[in-house]
Fold:
Amino acid sequence: MPIPMLQNSQLIYPAQPFAAIRQPGDLVNENCDSVHPLQGQVSNQQGQTYYGNDMFKNSQHFTVSNSTFIDNSITNDNLMKEFLQHTIIGAEYDSSARHPPPRCHPGTRLAIIERCKNFVVQCDGKEKTRWVVGPAGVGKSAIMQMVAEEIPADASVFLSVNGRQDGTKTFTTIAYQLAAKFEPYRQLIRNETSRDPSLLQKSLPVQFQKFIIDPFIRKPLFDSSHRFLIIIDGLDECDNPLTQVELLELISEFCIKYPASPIVWLIASRPEPHITSFFEDDSVTPSYTKEEIEIDSDEACEDVQRYLRNKLNKIKIKYPALKHKREWPSEFEFTRIATAAGGLFAYAATVVRYIGDPHYRNPAAQLRHVLEAIRAGPDDDESGRDHPMAQLDALYQRILSNIPADVMVDTRKLLLIYSDYGWPRENFRWQCNRLGLSEDTAYGAVCHLHAVLKVPTPDEADKEDLEYFHKSFADFTLNFKRSGFSRNVMDDFDQLQARTSFRIVKEVPDDMESTSSGEGIRCSDFGYLRDGPGFCDNVSLSWPGDERYQTTDDEKVKLKLYRDTMSDMCHQFGPSSKFYRSMGAFYILTTRFTSLATGFPFDQIRNSAFEQFRPRLTDLGKLMQVPLQTLDYAAICGRIDFRFMSPIGVDTDPWNPSCNHAKNEKEDVEGSQERRGWTTDFERSLSDSGGDAAHTDIPRFSIKAGKDSHWKATSGAGDYECLSCLQRLACHFIDNPDQLATVFVDSTEMCYVELSFVDPDDGVSEWRYRFFHSGPPSCFLVDA
Structure:
């Protein structure tokens, strides 16, 4: 809505209009939702309604013939419901997902809030963005919340790592909120999405053009004398730094290019290097002003002290053992806490939450623990400005140290999966089932962490997830120098995830061929898994469902556990994971699928079969040698890897200069002999090979054989479909039918092939092909 006049303000306003009362004709389209007038004034302007059942209300003595009437209300409902699915759910300032939202304590942050409100109504020209910046824990989100409520904001996006971090949905989220408030804008959205239903999946620049530039500049729906406030809080919590910068680029360019724009932007973030670097660029400077929130400013310290006094006094009144005391905590104790907190609200809030923790119900003892942590911190001579999180770290260390060693084993599991490297967020019960933690064990693992974690009640554990009260604790655990929690969080999480995955997968029988019910069950974009009657019955649930929960069908939970862990195994299997790259994982991935899809790790399986696991597979009889004549050139599909190596000094080189795919130079040492050569890859997809008449004489050169699923799954994996290289391989098949190739066949009958031979011309150079062959060698079928 247009910005209301600030009341009781001592600000001096400019002479030009900046938030005028809406008059008839202000809107380009008068048929809009009622726009709120400026606060404290009255508007009798009413827009026409679009509801069909009110179209002829109170009309008499008239006739309408040969007309068609369309009630758009149902269309509107469907439009907004569909639109909502493309937004960041719960990101608006008044969303129930954020309730209760962070707010400034009464009487605190008044000056900063007033400066932000002043900027909204007084900014002019290009400078219509205010960057509110400060470190973790200073209360940026609380300040943005207060501004959003008091003005209020027309659209707001409060980003958070707790499920609201998809920055690519920022402009759809803003557009949805504007459409919900203003009928002309809603009509615009309806028209644009009807014209191009893919608009909601378009790039950020395209959406910015359609949702912001067109309705506010190119074909303005609103009079430019009105202000529209858009707030983006927690920009640094957007999941991709490149997206963060792209959002800033679009907004700053908009402000500079369209100085008459009615939109004012408030953007809050931490001073991350890429964000700071962007705002320091001279070309961006004209578009914004900066509001820096410093931890150690006098204003911040006074606000934190005011907050601490009020909250600690409430704790004192609540407990009879403290209520009779004239002073609690003592002025000395209060000063120690206030000095340690400085202007960091996260520290103060953590202290208050820790002291007043109802799970302990002993605030005097908790206060002593806080003071001990402060005394154990850095020397008083060390500047807090140099180490702004040092005191908070000391408190976090104290909280972690209270966890018994045997309990910490399970606490550690939860902290790892809720780290930045953890798996996708689900509800708390689901996460615990995946970890194998029972309800009692899970709540025992977090009972000492209520000061830093929002823990769902057991009754809500099927709907809510564990959340950090503030990201500073997550940052603390990720930093080994600060926390000592983990030397390598990524490795520790990968190891935990691998252990969890193997435990679940091993509970599902691997011999289901005789009971398979058909194609199998879908496993994301990796393919279809074998199934059978009751095949997931043995998957153990550490926290089964009961009447408290929405999901009481444990069979569905078991199936999802199996499917998700198989997806993780496919995703993680590769050279970068030392915990998944094992013979056990290889066996699982090559025996559990009925068909494969594009996401399956084909290259990783093929390379590991012929390298890391070659000796073991040979011993097991799974890696075999067959003559080329038992393979069908027409069944070769997808990417083909080729390597050529020769001793240094040998001039032979089969590279065709006309090839357009990449040639990668390579050197290695075999024994005492240095070798040099190159690698490349190309593809057999038959996209255009039939167009060259010179190749039609090669038998089966332009024919597809094997399973369609194999062709679809491997298509597009190669660098280039090179007819010259394909012709050379096909001719080798024809000319050398008795030459041996090494093969491995998986449960879908995908055959992984390695063909190695010495160059017949020079007798020393080595050629090696690795490729996929749809279907087993013909000799396998005869043996069967």
About this structure: The mean pLDDT is 84. The first strand starts at residue 129 and ends at 133.
